[in-house]
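Quarterly update from the structural biology core.
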Amino acid sequence: MSAGIASTTQLWFTAPKQIELRKVSLPAPTANQVLVKTLYSAISAGTELLAYRGQLPADMALDSTLESLQQHASYPMQYGYACVGEIVNVGSGLDADWIGRQVFSFQPHASHFLTDTQNLQLVPDDISARAAAFLPNTETAVNLVHDGAPVMGERVVVLGQGVVGLLLTALLAKHPLAELIVVEGRAERQALAKQLGAHRVVHPDEAAAQISDADLIYEVSGQPAALDTAVAVSGYSSRIVIGSWYGNKEASINLGGAAHRNRLQLITSQVSTVAPALTGRWDKQRRFELAWQMIRECDPQRLISHVEPIQDAGSVYQQLDEEKLSVVQALFEYPDS
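Predicted structure, tokenized:
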């Protein structure tokens, strides 16, 4: 059994657009805990940038279902929810066979962490550590498909091609749709959308003129103004699935005119729960198993644009905030310590 370590390097958000790397002492694992050395953690360019910018609602827990994110959004705070690592020590109540296993856990960015085994997902042997970092976003994409329930022959529009939008496009491309249209302004993401199976790519400035009577629209751009685009491209009784979380940014939407008469269905979608209509047969573990299978089939590693050491986190966040990096998915990596 490994002797473990004395400390971990944790990333903390200390004020809007300010971060710190802190060395924190770790106790020995309790009976049913494991010590995990992180290999990679994925940066969320959506919710995580809201945390960096100070745009999260202060009266809400960071996540209502994840043990590691129960605190409210007030500084100083940790954030992050996609750590892939290797178990290096176990508590007295666990078999030593756990040591060496590769695992995923919803944890803030840190070089090492302690957690109960119930908070782990074993990474399948045929999935790499970098690919495993996509588990949360792939599960989110699966949940969006479940909430939208695309029907054979429908015209489906995806607004936004960040990582979730791209993964959603890949999953929707598996359906026999009449047309799968993505709305995205960045050239590198337009190209990726086409590789993943989009039939047509439209610039946001041209969406209202080029798209009409869509049956199902997904808003995953993170931009509140995109809600009006969703309404503009919809038809009678269209379904608009809102997968973005805007934090404390105001999300106004024009529901006058045709939008009112069209009996639009606005569906808010969030991955922390399973769609109510499916709970008789689906639970989180079944959805995780499907997400692992979609990772195998969609090869999300092609979306990794940057892999940076955790020591460079301040520069990475600054460049993400200022949109100086042409980033799709950025990962932190953790050198041996």
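The mean pLDDT is 91.
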